[in-house]
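Lab notebook, design round three. We kept the backbone fixed and only want residue identities now. Task for the bench partner: fill in a sequence for the structure below.
Input structure tokens:
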């Protein structure tokens, strides 16, 4: 009995070595790409963290020195940190809420088989084709205090008695950047939800109609359960995008008036490129990265907790 086992093992040996050789060859082929990724991604990340542990200002290069975690202490104890954190959280919440509500409605409308369906879908994709900078400049003209379309429309309808400087008031400037961000990020969310709607079997709706379910009941018991997972994906993307938002704020309000629209990401820009405090700016960047990572972990736990993602 032992001799056949020995012979089988001997025959399997070359095959096993061949499989190992093929695996090693595959890693060898991927090695250049891995090295490039390490050079372009890993090295800047490590270097930025190393700089965040130093006092390094481009205007005072002689002051370069290792300070440990002092930059992080300066970030979280600065007057700008709580302000920018609150602005970021509120901006992310209202942007995500606005996108989610509009995306669900737009996806339901785009899923209906009507003669206007192709036109509606094309219009919904229009913001997706525009770069963020172009979107910000377009909204800047819409909110222009003298020649803006919004002032002209509201004044002609008698809603406002005179033209307003929408971007110069703390409340209206905040609403303005949220509006611009919702318009810019809406198409992606619509596409995700529309794809989910088209994957729902028609038999489920037919069975619900047979059971006497009206439109509201069909949405609650058929449509909504199929949309939970895509909605969580939309929430993840919108939340992470809200934390990292920059170009719309930079071009519309510049973080003002005062610090009314200064988010964590914009505070990082001010510290790094306006104050040229590279050490503290990298500490800001890592603080934002940590908050982004915590947000991502929270939403991923929500997905795993619902059993929607299986490993």
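Proposed sequence:
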């Amino acid at each position: 009995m032992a001799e056949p086992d020995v012979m089988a093992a001997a025959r399997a040996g070359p095959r096993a070595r061949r499989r190992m050789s093929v695996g090693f060859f595959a890693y060898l082929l991927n090695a250049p790409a891995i090295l490039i990724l390490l050079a372009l991604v890993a090295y800047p990340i490590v270097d930025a963290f190393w700089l965040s542990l130093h006092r390094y200002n481009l205007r005072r290069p002689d002051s370069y020195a290792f300070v440990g975690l002092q930059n992080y202490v300066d970030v979280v104890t600065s007057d700008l940190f709580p302000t920018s954190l609150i602005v970021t959280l509120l901006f992310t919440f209202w942007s995500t809420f606005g996108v989610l509500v509009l995306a669900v409605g737009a996806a339901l409308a785009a899923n209906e088989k009507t003669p206007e369906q192709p036109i509606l879908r094309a219009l919904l994709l229009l913001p997706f084709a525009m770069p963020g900078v172009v979107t910000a400049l377009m909204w800047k003209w819409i909110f222009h205090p003298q020649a803006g379309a919004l002032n002209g429309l509201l004044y002609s309808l008698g809603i406002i008695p005179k033209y307003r400087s929408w971007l110069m008031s703390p409340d209206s400037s905040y609403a303005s950047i949220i509006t611009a961000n919702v318009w810019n990020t809406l198409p992606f969310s619509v596409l995700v939800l529309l794809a989910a709607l088209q994957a729902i079997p028609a038999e489920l709706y037919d069975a619900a109609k047979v059971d006497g379910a009206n439109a509201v009941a069909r949405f609650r018991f058929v449509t909504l359960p199929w949309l939970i997972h895509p909605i969580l994906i939309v929430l993840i993307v919108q939340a992470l995008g809200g934390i990292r938002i920059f170009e719309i704020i930079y071009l519309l309000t510049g973080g003002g008036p005062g610090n009314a629209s200064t988010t964590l990401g914009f505070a990082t820009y001010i510290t790094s490129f306006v104050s040229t405090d590279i050490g503290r700016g990298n500490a800001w960047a890592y603080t934002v990265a940590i908050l982004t990572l915590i947000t991502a972990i929270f939403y991923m736990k929500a997905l795993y907790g619902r059993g929607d993602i299986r490993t």
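Keep this in mind before ordering anything: Residues 2-40 form one domain.
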